[in-house]
Amino acid sequence: MQIQGTTHRSPLSGQRVSSVHGIVTARTASGFYLQDAAGDGDPTTSDALFVFTRSAPNVATGDRVELSGTVFEYRPDCSSAVALDDETCSPQSAAFHNLSVTELVSPSIEVHSSGHAPPAVAWIGGSDVTPPTQISDAAGGSAEDPDFPFDRRQHALDFFETLEGMRVAVAAPLVVGPTDAFGGLPVLADLGAGQGALTSRGGIALTAASANGGRIKLDDAFAAIPQADVGDTLSDVEGILDYRFGSYRVLITRGIGASEGSAPKQTAGVATPGWLSVASFNVENLAPTSSRKKRDGLAAQIATHLGGPALIALAEMQDDSGATDDGVTTAAGNFGALVAAIEAAGGPAYRFVQIDPVDGADGGAPGANIRVGFLYDPLRVAFDAENARLGDATTAIGLDAHGRLDLDAGRIDPASAVWSSSRKPLAARFRIGGRTLVAIALHLRSKSGDGPLFGRFQPPIAASRAAREAQADVVGRFVEEALGADPDAAVVVLGDLNDFDFAPALVRLEAAGLRNLTKQLPEAERYTFVFDGNAQALDHMLVSASLAATARYQIVHVNSEYRAADRASDHDPVLALLAMPSPEPHALALGLASGGTLASLGASRMRNRALGVPTSTPL
Questions:
Q1: Which alpha helices (DSSP H) does 122-210 contain, by range?
Q2: pLDDT for the residue 362
Q3: Would you say the C-alpha torsion 523, 561, 554, 336 has a positive or negative sign?
Q4: Whose CA is closest to 619, among 357, 381, 284, 387?
Q5: What DSSP state is assigned to residue 205?
Q6: Low-confidence ranges of the chain (pLDDT < 70)
Q7: CB 255 within 8 A of CB 244
Q8: Strands 237-244 and 534-536, how do they pair?
Q9: CA distance 118 to 23
Q10: How far apart are CA 393 and CA 356, in angstroms?
Q11: Longest CA pairwise span in the chain (Å)
Q12: CB 305 within 8 A of CB 588
């Protein structure tokens, strides 16, 4: 089609055109899709476009129409068709990164005849029509620049552009991301054949080599999308190919069914004597106002699927009033409710370590004051809950003259500008038998504000990356100081790092003397989160050399691959078994107090219950 042209923007943009013929293939509340019945025979140009009528169009599917109008490049959520201005939003807007969609606006429409069969579909999948795995050229710049390399055989961005607005069919779709809250479902054609690093559970992993250009999202604009999980398969899908919300989508035009193929939820191995089980878990904005189903689901996963680890770093714990901006920053009630739910699910009677942030200073949902914290089992891990020396939101933890932490728990350089509107790390010293473990819980800067993989700027603008690198440098210097004082120190850095194992922030932490246990796994198995069908590792555990050689690591897949109704969080937890001295058998019934004396935890719990004191005392 001459209007679409052979690049991402029409060569006729802004011009008035006439005698445009085609068949109406689908209608929306503000326009319709028009496709050339025969096509021009050129696979490098789309044979269709969207006609914007502002209100419900006076045409029907199957009408053969002739129209005139103005060619317009509409940037979803950013453009103003009224002003014919495609740059009405600022570079700070997420929509600024979207590709434009070629439309015809202010149309004059004449219906010639009705009842025509729709044009034949263009197949995605099958012989010679598999989307490329490379999304775009890596040279850098805007894909909408006329000089930017355009090749549908090499670049998925260009492959889908040549189908914009057309009727398409996806052959043998494999579900690679669960159905989302907006009715979207990411799939690969041909059950993923010819694509990148397929996981053993039916997904596809984002790797340093590939961001998986073959992914396409199914959209429920015209027909219902089934609830599906990673690994499920679908019957062949038909629809209209469009671009919105930073990705190419097939707006399905008829209902489809899903066949169950998802893998069962996993259960981690249990630590045996001589091994310490340590986990990290992003609990996705857990608040006192969260549903009982969510809290009990998290508790069951910790107690059963993780086997009740001795030590757990938690991320996204909200304050005691949840996402209500009322000045509350405490979270003892929220932690206590989770602890009680875990014990009710058959897990350990955990205690917790956390520090309240300055109100509104740590990012996340306004008023929620999300933070990191630790759960620890006092039967296996020693931390003096009554006499611990804790920093507050503004006190920095450091090393004393002997190279040991000068506090039992505290923030790492909380006054640094790198933590602006971001969660501050929590470092704590625990004792296991006769050995000290320094654990540092992280939740680094989110990827919010980064450009989409299928956006106009290629490679995508990673606006948030520098912030994570700076945060990693602060933590790295702290680790270097600790390992400089004691090269054999047992240090573990864990949490939601919001980046991949090959990303610069993670590389910088490794350069500080840590080993990323994620790299123990094959590339295709490194994922804790699924976004737009890309399985990716955002949660990690890095350990010092004294722990790395014998560490055993597992990502426990219980959440990220499943629809919202069947998960407790959007992240999978990670778990490591670290070779650490185990308590003596009698110490399993007796807790080792920080002063070195043995105190009966069983007796103290019975006494606390009699006095009405919670068994997990807030710190």
A1: 156-161
A2: 96
A3: positive
A4: 387
A5: E
A6: 79-88, 128, 582-619
A7: no
A8: unpaired
A9: 7
A10: 6
A11: 93
A12: no
pLDDT of 612: 29
Inter-CA distances, 19 with 48, 51, 269, 350, Å? 14, 14, 69, 73
CA 126 to chain centre: 30
pLDDT digits (tens, 9 = 90+) for 2-30: 899 999 999 999 999 999 999 999 999 99
CB 285 within 8 A of CB 365: yes
Amino acid identity, position 93: S
CA distances from 221 to 88, 169, 184, 238, 563 (A): 25, 16, 9, 13, 19
User: And the tokens for 508?
Assistant: 């910088």
Q: Who's near 507: CB < 8 A, 6+ residues apart?
A: none
Is residue 5 classed exposed, middle or buried when 0-12, 13-18 and 19+ CB atoms within 10 A define those classes? buried
The pLDDT assigned to 387 comes to: 80
Q: Which two tokens stand for residue 274?
A: 């001589």
Decide if 478 contacts 491 (C-beta within 8 A): no
Only one residue has tokens 């992240």, namely 571
**Residue 320 backbone phi and psi in degrees, to 5:** -75, -5
What's the CA dihedral at 611, 613, 616, 619 to 10 degrees?
-130
Query: What is the pLDDT, as a whole number, of residue 588?
Result: 35
Would you give the DSSP letter of residue 335?
Answer: H
pTM: 0.92
Q: Where are the alpha helices (DSSP H) in 486-586?
A: 504-511, 545-548
* Region of residue 510 (left: phi > 0; alpha: psi -120 to 50; beta: else): alpha
Cβ neighbours around 153 below 10 Å, total:
10
Beta bridge partners, 583, equal none
Cα angle for residues 351, 352, 355 (degrees, 5° grid): 155
In sequence order, the β-bridge partners of residue 374 are 313, 353
pLDDT of residue 201: 97
Phi-psi region of 477 (alpha: psi -120 to 50; beta: other; left: phi over 0): alpha
Write out pLDDT tens, residues 51-102.
999 999 999 999 999 999 999 999 988 865 444 444 567 787 888 999 999 9
At residue 489, what is the residue type? A
| pLDDT at residue 582, as a whole number | 58
Give the integer Cα–Cα distance in Å for 237 and 55.
28
CB 442 within 8 A of CB 370: no
Is-contact 471 444, C-beta < 8 A?
yes
Tokens matching residue 406: 């000068």
Q: At what angle do helices 292-300 and 332-344 cross, to 10 degrees?
A: 60
